[in-house]
C-alpha cells in the first residue's frame, strides 16, 4: 500500500500502530502551528547547538515543545557525551518553517537495535516531515580533507548494511515504503546544490566545503589503520558510526535528505611502523582519535554549522 498523501490525518494501520502512542503523546502537548513540522534536523556529536537556531513560540499552560527522550514512548535513551537527548519543535528562519530537531541521536554501538535507532525517522514521517538534514562528526580518510571541513554527503557505503545489518531488515512496513527501495539518489541533488549556495552566500572559506562518501561503521572502537585503508580503497572519504541508518530509513519513507558532516579528525591509513630491527624504520607522526577530540573539533565548528543549516532552510 503506498503511503497516504496526508499522513497526519491518515488512520494508522497494523504496520504503524506501534507508533501511535508516540504520536498521541507528542500531539497532546504540541501547539497546532508546530504539530506538523516539514523539516527535521538531527544534531550529531557536539552539534546540539543547532537547536539554538530554532525559535520557540509563546506557549500556553498546557503545551510544550521540548521533550526529553526518556519521556517519549518508543524512544530509547541517548547515552553518548555530546548528545543531550531531547526532541525540540520550533520555527526556523525568517519564513518561520516549522521544524523538529533531535538534539542527540541513537547509535547501534550503544546497544540499541536498528529499529530503535531509526524509530524517530518513522515518527517524523508520520508527523509530516518532507526533508531531513542529518549532521554528524566524522573522521577523514581523504588526505585532501582537513579538520573543520564540512562534507556535503553525496553517497554512502554501509558496511553493517551490506553485511546483514541494514535497518530495513524485517517484515516490510508497506505503509512507509517499498520492500526494495533504491538508494541510488539517497542524497538529494537539489538540497546539495542549495547547501553549496548557502555556503557561498555566507562567504565560507573556499575549499572548506567538500563533497564525499560516508562510510558507516558500527563502532564504538575507531578504525585500525588497515580498516581505514580498506574504507578509503573502496571509495570512502569519511567514516562515522551514525547517519546512514537514519538516511536509509528516511529514503525508504520518501523523505528527501541532506547530509552534512564535520571533519573532526584525520584517520591514520599509513601502515604501522615495522618492528623489524633490520628495517629500522623512523617513527612517524601518530594520531589517535578520541571522543574528546571529536567533541572539541565539532564544538569549534558549531557556529558555522548553525549558520549553514539556517541558511539552507531559508533557501529550501
Ligand atoms: O555521528 P555522530 O553521532 O555525530 O558522532 C561520531 O562521533 C562518535 C565517535 O567519536 C560516534 O558517535 C560517531 O558517529
UniProtKB/TrEMBL annotation:
Binding site for phosphate: 45, 83, 105-107, 137, 242
SUPFAM superfamilies the UniProt entry points to: Purine and uridine phosphorylases
Keyword Glycosyltransferase part of the UniProt annotation: yes
Gene Ontology biological-process entries: nucleoside metabolic process
Domain Nucleoside phosphorylase, chain residue ranges per copy: 38-313
EC numbers for this chain: 2.4.2.1
This protein's record includes keyword Cell division: no
Top-level taxon of the source organism: Eukaryota
Pathway: Purine metabolism; purine nucleoside salvage
Binding site for a purine D-ribonucleoside: 223, 265
Keyword entries, A-Z: Glycosyltransferase, Transferase
GO cellular component: cytoplasm
GO molecular function, one term: purine-nucleoside phosphorylase activity
Similarity field: Belongs to the PNP/MTAP phosphorylase family.
NCBIfam families: PNPH, PNPH-PUNA-XAPA, PRK08202.1
Function: The purine nucleoside phosphorylases catalyze the phosphorolytic breakdown of the N-glycosidic bond in the beta-(deoxy)ribonucleoside molecules, with the formation of the corresponding free purine bases and pentose-1-phosphate.
Name by which UniProt lists this protein: Purine nucleoside phosphorylase
Origin species: Ambispora leptoticha
Organismal lineage: Eukaryota, Fungi, Fungi incertae sedis, Mucoromycota, Glomeromycotina
Amino acid at each position: 500500500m503506498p503511503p497516504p498523501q496526508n499522513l497526519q490525518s491518515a488512520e494508522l494501520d497494523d504496520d504503524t500502530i506501534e507508533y501511535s502512542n508516540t504520536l498521541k503523546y507528542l500531539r497532546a502537548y504540541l501547539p497546532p502551528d508546530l504539530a506538523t513540522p516539514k523539516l527535521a534536523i538531527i544534531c550529531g556529536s557536539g552539534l546540539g547547538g543547532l537547536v539554538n537556531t530554532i525559535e520557540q513560540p509563546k506557549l500556553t499552560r498546557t503545551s510544550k515543545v521540548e521533550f526529553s527522550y526518556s519521556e517519549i514512548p518508543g524512544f530509547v535513551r541517548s547515552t553518548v557525551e555530546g548528545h543531550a537527548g531531547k526532541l525540540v519543535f520550533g520555527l526556523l528562519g525568517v519564513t518561520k518553517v516549522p521544524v523538529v530537531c533531535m538534539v542527540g541521536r541513537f547509535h547501534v554501538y550503544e546497544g540499541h537495535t536498528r529499529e530503535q535507532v531509526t524509530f524517530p525517522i518513522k515518527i517524523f514521517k508520520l508527523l509530516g516531515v518532507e526533508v531531513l538534514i542529518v549532521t554528524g562528526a566524522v573522521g577523514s580518510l581523504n588526505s585532501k580533507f582537513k579538520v573543520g571541513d564540512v562534507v556535503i554527503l553525496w553517497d554512502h557505503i554501509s558496511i553493517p548494511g551490506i553485511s546483514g545489518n541494514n535497518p530495513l531488515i524485517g517484515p516490510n512496513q508497506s505503509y512507509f515504503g517499498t520492500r526494495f527501495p533504491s538508494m541510488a539518489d539517497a542524497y538529494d541533488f537539489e538540497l546539495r546544490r542549495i547547501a553549496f549556495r548557502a555556503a557561498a552566500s555566507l562567504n565560507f572559506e573556499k575549499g572548506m566545503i567538500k563533497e564525499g562518501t560516508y562510510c558507516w561503521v558500527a563502532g564504538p572502537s575507531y578504525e585500525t589503520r588497515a580498516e581505514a585503508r580498506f574504507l578509503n580503497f573502496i571509495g570512502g572519504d569519511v567514516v562515522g558510526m551514525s547517519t546512514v541508518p537514519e538516511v536509509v530509513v528516511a529514503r525508504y519513507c520518501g523523505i528527501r535528505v541532506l547530509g552534512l558532516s564535520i571533519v573532526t579528525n584525520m584517520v591514520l591509513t599509513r601502515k604501522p611502523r615495522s618492528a623489524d630491527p633490520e628495517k629500522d624504520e623512523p617513527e612517524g607522526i601518530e594520531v589517535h582519535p578520541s571522543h574528546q577530540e571529536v567533541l572539541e573539533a565539532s564544538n569549534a565548528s558549531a557556529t558555522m554549522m548553525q549558520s549553514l543549516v539556517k541558511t539552507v532552510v531559508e533557501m529550501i
